[in-house]
Amino acid sequence: MKYFILLLFSFFIISCGNNKQETAAALKPKPLMSVVKEHQSATKVRPIFLKEVENWQELKAIDSFFVKFEKISPNEALSNALELKDLVKSLKDSVIPVLFDVPAFKARVNILENESLRLADLTLIPAIKASEVNAQVDKTILAFSGVNTKINTILAKKRFEDEIDVKVDFIGLDTTKMDDISKKSIDLRLEEKLRKKDELDDGLKKTGQ
Q: Residue 136: which region, alpha, beta or left (left: phi > 0; alpha: psi -120 to 50)?
């Protein structure tokens, strides 16, 4: 009987010790490099312009890949950095649609490449800090936002110019015989109509219509 009591008492002490260790482990904070951080999403190509870039596979691949970076730990970001660098290089080396084959757009891609290279370089620094990785992730996302913003700007300009051509042809005006003041007046009226149409499109998109 005494032996049984001693055995039970020993088991109780061991169980308490294990529970304390488990509790301490649970309360111990995770290393900062493993803490998931929520980053701001990259700017997207506007839905009305998606058809214009639907065959640009390299751009679509990067857009899909950046979803991973919206909620990611520094360790995970570094493990994906090399693949992102390769995807950006593929975009830069891809056949760029004629509409975007302009210096302003190429400059945005170059900025994205530089930021992705910096992120990849962080994988070579043994004592890199979580805050430094998170900051570079933000910069890289911002650079990709710049690429998509430029796409939206170029396509919006093209849409506006196409709208002007259609409107002028429709009302039967000979632009070669118009003075600059008349042209400017028409352009302003058409620009205002286009702006209102864009606002309507955005409103319908938000309401799901």
A: alpha
Distance CA 203, CA 209 (A): 9
Q: Please, what are the averages of pLDDT over each run of 10 residues along the chain (209 residues)? A: 53 54 51 94 95 94 95 97 97 93 96 98 94 97 97 91 62 52 56 61 49
Residue 72's closest CA among 37, 40, 41, 42? 37
Tally of CB atoms within 10 A around 119: 23
In order of 62, 92, 101, 102, 147, the CA distances from 106 in angstroms are: 16, 8, 7, 6, 9
Do residues 35 and 130 make contact, with C-beta atoms less than 8 angstroms apart? yes
* Whole-angstrom distance, CA of residue 144 vs CA of residue 62: 9
* CA terminus-to-terminus distance, the chain: 79
Alpha carbon distance 208, 45 (integer Å): 18
Which residues, at least 6 apart from 68, have a Cβ–Cβ distance to it below 8 Å?
A: 76, 80
